[in-house]
Amino acid sequence: MDIYLLLYLFLIAAPFSTIIHELGHLVGATIVKADQITLSIGTGKNAYTFSKDNIRISFQPSFLLTGLTKSERSKPYNSLEVAFITFCGPLFNILSFILFTGLHNFVHENSYFFLLMLLNGWIATVNMVPFKVNNKESDGYIIFKQLFKNE
């Protein structure tokens, strides 16, 4: 891997793929009519914040593979709605994987599309595996917990 591809991975592909994932959660929350949605990319002090209607998007300086989307609604979400919102993140990565696979194979074969394809596939796969580390739960863990909890 040359230095340009490595820089591309850390400075463009990883943050872009994280944004794709978090936008999936944002779209899912919008579909189930969330009252307030906050999408945050990175960690640290806010570098830039954008708000429109009930959506707030903020970017922090350390943006590598770190994102969070929170949504709230006056009427509490039921288990299927939480599972749906959660599933939309990996779904967007799966759709991006398909898009970048097509771009790589049929439009222009290059390492940059290939890296985006692999990264989005990896993010979708890892997020769908149910696991919990300390207090951090994967999307798969949240979906599993919501679908199989006793109400």
Automatic annotation (TrEMBL):
Pfam family, any one: Peptidase_M50
Instruction: Give the transmembrane region(s).
Output: 82-100, 112-131
Cofactor needs: Zn(2+)
Say where the protein is mainly found. membrane
The family this protein is said to belong to: Belongs to the peptidase M50B family.
Per the record, the coiled-coil ranges are none
Membrane topology per the entry is: Multi-pass membrane protein
What taxonomic classification does the UniProt entry list for its organism?
Bacteria, Bacillati, Bacillota, Bacilli, Bacillales
Report the InterPro entries cross-referenced here.
Peptidase_M50
Report if keyword Membrane is assigned.
yes
Give the species this sequence originates from: Ornithinibacillus caprae
> What does the UniProt keyword field contain?
Membrane, Transmembrane, Transmembrane helix
Cellular component GO terms held in the UniProt record: membrane
> Where does the Peptidase M50 domain start and stop, copy by copy?
10-103
The name this protein goes by in its record: Peptidase M50 domain-containing protein
Subcellular localization: Membrane
- Gene Ontology biological process terms in this record: proteolysis
